[in-house]
Amino acid sequence: MSPTMIAPVVVEENNRYQKGVKHLCDNGLTKVPTKYIWPEPDRPIFTKSDKLTKPKQNLKLPIIDFAELLGPNRSHVLRTIAEACETYGFFQVVNHGMEGDVSRNMIEVCKKFFELPYEERSKYMTSDMSAPVRYGTSFNQNKDNVFCWRDFLKLYAHPLPDYLPYWPSSPSDFRSLAATYATETREMFEMMVKAIMESLEIDGDDNEAAKELKEGSQMVVVNCYPPCPEPELTLGMPPHSDYGFLTLLLQDDVEGLQILYRDEWVTIDPIPGSFVINVGDHLEIFSNGRYKSVLHRVLVNSTKPRISVASLHSFPLTSVVKPSPKLIDEHNQPQYMDTDFATFLQYISTREPKWKNFLESRKIHHL
Ligand code: OGA
Ligand code: NI
């Protein structure tokens, strides 16, 4: 056989994995296929009883009560946000203004979407990264050597009327529930930007970046992590940082998200009805390195399916991402090069997601 020929059986195997983890599990599975087995140093650490070995308690992230931002405690809350973004790159938000029904309905309708027959879901499968809707599996299924235990549905969400007609038409209430969810998360994002700006001591109203972010892109990513027969061998998502400005994450009541804190992986306790907010690469650059875009990953478990919905908010494609001029003076030099979004996307689409290659490549090393 010539070296360029791939044995038909290998092609067959790969096709099987391209259809996603849900499809694989629906056909019965008692072991994790080799394709999903991560090298030992990258695996989570479980004890034999399938329980995660926890060196410490789960991490309690700082909790921001959004209602308090509107009251006399505003400056205290802003300081807590600043400390959380510096220390963890993450915080949780309660009293954020989104009705419980909106988030519960979103989780429920997403669950139903992933329970549709494969033929229905696969209508949205495409390798075109700019498609308004993209269904897929793993992290980058065209490049990953080892696959992740995750299927996803990515929806472009701004401007909503441009994209909504392309969103899944089944389940029948998907579009209306997901549209409400996307609109309300966007409102939450705008309030959050104002608070983040103020926490950096940048005037929230009179600033170019805040205006650009109002027109920025929004992508809603629904993640589906089916139960896994051997969760100690694989990952739901590999270590990565989010490329945008902020990510607003809604999780169901199943834990799985871990963040890197002081060189250790720590699990974030889900708080029902709350949002997990994290600093993305754009905000790390914008804050000139003060706020950290922190690596995080997802573990799976053997009993409970898990659904999460991440809303990723970024500067518009036309913006140049750079440290805020308001944070630069003779004592504070820019720590990052100016970057346009196209360069950014091109870089991340050609590199492994692991580690913070991109941010590292944009750092200016002052002598
Ligand atoms: C993401 C992400 C975490 C989760 O979608 O970028 O990190 O818990 N998700 O699913
Ligand atoms: Ni992420």
Automatic annotation (TrEMBL):
One of its GO terms (cellular component) is nucleus. Keywords: Cytoplasm, Iron, Metal-binding, Nucleus, Oxidoreductase. Residues 216-319 form the Fe2OG dioxygenase domain. One of its GO terms (molecular function) is metal ion binding. InterPro entries: DIOX_N (IPR026992), IPNS-like_FE2OG_OXY (IPR044861), IPNS-like_sf (IPR027443), Oxoglu/Fe-dep_dioxygenase_dom (IPR005123), Plant_2OG-oxidoreductases (IPR050295). It is found in: Cytoplasm; Nucleus. Its main location: cytoplasm. The keyword NADP does not apply. Involved in the regulation of shoot development and salicylic acid (SA) homeostasis. Belongs to the iron/ascorbate-dependent oxidoreductase family. This is Fe2OG dioxygenase domain-containing protein.
